[in-house]
Amino acid sequence: MNDLLLCKPGEIFLKGLNKHYFEERLVANVKRRLKPIGHFRVTYLQSALYIEAADDAADLDAAYDAVRKVFGIATITRAAACEKDKDAIADAIERYNDSVSDDDKIEYTDIVALLMSSISTIINVISYVLIAFVAISLVVSSIMIGIITYISVLERTKEIGILRAIGASKKDVSRVFNAETFIIGLTAGLIGILMTMLLNIPINIIVHDLTGIMSLKSELPWVGGVILVVISVVLTFFAGLIPSSLAAKKDPVEALRTE
Question: pTM here?
């Protein structure tokens, strides 16, 4: 950030075809006033005069006192040159406030940042609510998978007895039902990912048609898809552990007698 002087001319903007002549005369008068003080860069741009120190020896305070006496200068203000970026401007204001007293500090309010912060807060609240609903759905789904697996164990009691009779161990019986729950979780996860990818197509078409913003789109990152599939497999696997353990503990003789 570089300190400079921002000068506004008086009646030059009222001039007609000879306006350019008066602008050149004003710049020449300012340069003549500044020459004894030091080396300055003087730029006239968009009906404003910018004076910047060209070296460390140039004194802007002395330039301020000199330029304010130039005929044709209506206002002169200390300013700061910085990048055309909101954050850079905020940093320049903060550095200025640190170097002056409380009475001279600039009160700066970033309305856009406040609006974005409010929107982000609302989005976060909505996200937390959706996460809560999803978590409840996952718990209910896990319970239902456990119940379905237990029903499967009850309906296949005789098959469990046959497996035990032909030499299958308790671990083998347990692995059969664990494998089934694993396959159910994997299949459910893959179907969910496929449905999400298919639904993204009409969703993006509708969003683009309503907003006209082509960069705004719904998409599922491949990392997120893999994580969701893994979560589906893990939940179904753990939901089936208790029913598979009950199946492994069944007495083979009693299991064979079951109709």
Answer: 0.53
